[in-house]
């Protein structure tokens, strides 16, 4: 059984994202003094006592207004409530009760989900009870005076909440594969997420910057759970002003860091841009597995040679992730979308793969036979004594040599190619750590070992 979901519902600017950050004990949801910053459903993991659950933040709920994104935000809130085990209705204790709160309360009373009423912004413990008292009239039971900023009253709220949630022993959760969907604005990231889940999970709009936060969604394929993370479109730093977009891009980078696999979405009509190259470099530097997804392929005029020419150009420009798998899709029509999961599985498996020391040294022995380490003008030649894998995610191999300075970039790239040709590692970066070891120390240790064996 998946983790139970708790929806946070309320009108704009009552502090829903602040309360979510408090309950999840993180600072991931964007908090900014402007209506409409939160637009999609944002999921975060939370714990209280012996219970684990997901809290989902939603956009500010406004009935009777169909301007801009408000109808889409309403749909997102309704979808969040439909999949939730319980809900927290957040109101503003400083502003007091108003008509918008009464409309939302009436709608919530018609739902089958248990609802807890959180009167937020009650920073003063003494005044909090008085601020919360007027909300009894909403007919949703006891109003809990809380402060999302300081944490006042959230313990009492959570004590009541977990009575509606299954216990930890009742939850059977498999290891999720965390997949970040990254790319420039308007390349089709949100459309791809919607194609994966079969619903309008993310708001799709031609307006740049529609997705502002990293949006989590749990899906399952063939019994395997995947946590898909739609991220804000990442533009050039010089074009980004401080505000919601700045925070959204920061969250996108955080999503890449916490993922197992990154889907780097490329617009087939635009081709590979300079910003795509920078993103590819960021993915490689963070050590994440990667699948390059070329979207909008249905809109490209092509013949029998187009796909091969495009792939050759793409790989030459995305040299940072030349080891990644590549797929051409259309998120709008669903063309080849499901095949992406096969590439995700393959990349995730290679990302956490471990290889024995004996196999690594067999590859090194074969590589040095075909191409000996370089020799300096002074006659010093590089020597590789042995190698061993020291970590995974991504795979990291330590190579013990006489002097790392004797191995130039060309030879280091050659050794990496030999590892990839012999062992695979498709879809994941590998780290080669060249560690120096003075020859006399190595020989002395070898002499000691031989002497020990003789004894």
UniProtKB/TrEMBL annotation:
Residues 4-169, 177-352 form the EngA-type G domain. InterPro entries: AAA+_ATPase (IPR003593), G_ENGA (IPR031166), GTP-bd (IPR006073), GTPase_Der (IPR016484), KH_dom-like (IPR032859), KH_dom-like_a/b (IPR015946), P-loop_NTPase (IPR027417), Small_GTP-bd (IPR005225). The keyword Repeat applies. GTP 1 binds at residues 10-17, 57-61, 120-123. Keywords: GTP-binding, Nucleotide-binding, Repeat, Ribosome biogenesis. The keyword Repeat applies. Signal peptide: none annotated. One of its GO terms (biological process) is ribosome biogenesis. GTP 2 binds at residues 183-190, 230-234, 295-298. Associates with the 50S ribosomal subunit. This is GTPase Der. GTPase that plays an essential role in the late steps of ribosome biogenesis. It comes from Myxacorys almedinensis A. Belongs to the TRAFAC class TrmE-Era-EngA-EngB-Septin-like GTPase superfamily. EngA (Der) GTPase family. GO terms for molecular function: GTP binding; ribosome binding.
């Amino acid at each position: 059984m998946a983790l139970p979901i708790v929806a946070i519902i309320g009108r704009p600017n009552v502090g829903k994202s602040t309360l979510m950050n408090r309950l999840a004990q993180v600072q991931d949801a964007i908090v900014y003094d402007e209506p409409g910053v939160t637009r999609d459903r944002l999921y975060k993991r939370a714990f209280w006592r012996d219970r684990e659950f997901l809290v989902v933040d939603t956009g500010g709920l406004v009935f009777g207004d169909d301007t801009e994104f408000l109808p889409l935000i309403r749909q997102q809130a309704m979808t969040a409530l439909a999949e939730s085990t319980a809900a927290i209705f957040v109101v503003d204790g400083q502003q007091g009760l108003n008509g918008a709160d009464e409309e939302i309360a009436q709608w919530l009373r018609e739902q089958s989900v248990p609802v807890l009423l959180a009167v937020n912004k009650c920073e003063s413990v003494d005044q909090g009870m008085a601020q919360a008292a007027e909300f009894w009239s909403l007919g949703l039971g006891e109003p809990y005076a809380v402060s999302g900023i300081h944490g006042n009253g959230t313990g009492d709220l959570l004590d009541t909440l977990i009575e509606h949630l299954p216990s930890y022993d009742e939850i059977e959760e498999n290891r999720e594969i965390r997949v970040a969907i990254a790319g420039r604005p308007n390349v089709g990231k949100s459309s791809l997420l919607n194609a994966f889940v079969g619903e309008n999970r993310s708001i799709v709009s031609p307006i740049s910057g529609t997705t502002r936060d990293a949006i989590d969604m749990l899906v399952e394929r063939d019994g395997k759970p995947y946590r898909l993370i739609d991220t804000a479109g990442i533009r050039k730093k010089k074009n980004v002003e401080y505000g919601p977009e700045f925070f959204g891009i920061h969250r996108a980078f955080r999503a890449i860091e916490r993922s197992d696999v990154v889907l780097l979405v490329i617009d087939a009509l635009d081709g590979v841009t300079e910003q795509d190259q920078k993103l590819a470099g960021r993915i490689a530097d963070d050590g994440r597995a990667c699948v390059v997804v070329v979207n909008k392929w249905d809109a490209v005029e092509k013949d029998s040679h187009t796909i091969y020419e495009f792939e050759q150009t793409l790989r030459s420009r995305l040299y940072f992730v030349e080891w990644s798998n590549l797929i051409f899709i259309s998120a709008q029509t669903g063309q080849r979308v499901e095949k992406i999961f096969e590439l995700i599985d393959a990349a995730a498996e290679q990302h956490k793969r471990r290889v024995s020391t004996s196999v690594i040294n067999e590859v090194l022995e074969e590589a040095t036979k075909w191409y000996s380490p370089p020799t300096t003008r002074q006659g010093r030649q590089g020597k590789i004594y042995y190698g061993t894998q020291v970590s995974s995610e991504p795979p990291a191999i330590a190579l013990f040599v006489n002097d790392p300075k004797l191995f130039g970039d060309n030879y280091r790239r050659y050794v990496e190619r030999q590892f990839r040709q012999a062992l695979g590692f498709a879809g994941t970066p590998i780290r080669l750590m060249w560690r120096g070891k003075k020859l006399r120390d190595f020989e002395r240790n070898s002499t000691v070992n031989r002497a020990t064996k003789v004894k």
